[in-house]
Amino acid sequence: xxxxxxxxxxxxxxxxxxxxxxxxxxxxxxxxxxxxxxxxxxxxxxxxxxxxxxxxxxxxxxxxxxxxxxxxxxxxxxxxxxxxxxxxxxxxxxxxxxxxxxxxxxxxxxxxxxxxxxxxxxxxxxxxxxxxxxxxxxxxxxxxxxxxxxxxxxxxxxxxxxxxxxxxxxxxxxxxxxxxxxxxxxxxxxxxxxxx
Length: 196
Fold this sequence. Notes:
By secondary structure, this protein is mainly α. The chain is built from nine helices and no strands.
């Protein structure tokens, strides 16, 4: 017996209202992340305590969850073509990477070694979310594959143990190879492989 995700019947109007509500919340959290990341990037020497780091991770986790909810709602079986097109129209995968993951990873990277443990925790969180989206939102498979490669590359870069460094380099290479096999004409993917 094959289990299917719960896709209870929902009217088009209900789904549209749900998507609108999710998007409104997402935009608010995204704006907070953008402002906080910009402020932290502008002053990388100001110390942050454990509670502040945990709050920043929680904020970015919330943004990732909002993106997940938005993508799941817009890809729902009851979604109209217009609803399904919203993720592309509003550049949701790119926004999730830029504001939900990459900007914060750069804040963490510039504050190493003090931020090392928080950076590792956030990389794992983001990696799990990308892996979930890879499995559940196939319409953006190429994006998820490249993001997984990028996250594995970040994980490799912060690893101090030689064996684990090589392991994460191999993980990144596998994702980038998968991406380049799917799109052999995209040079950026070969550049990523070359960096490894």
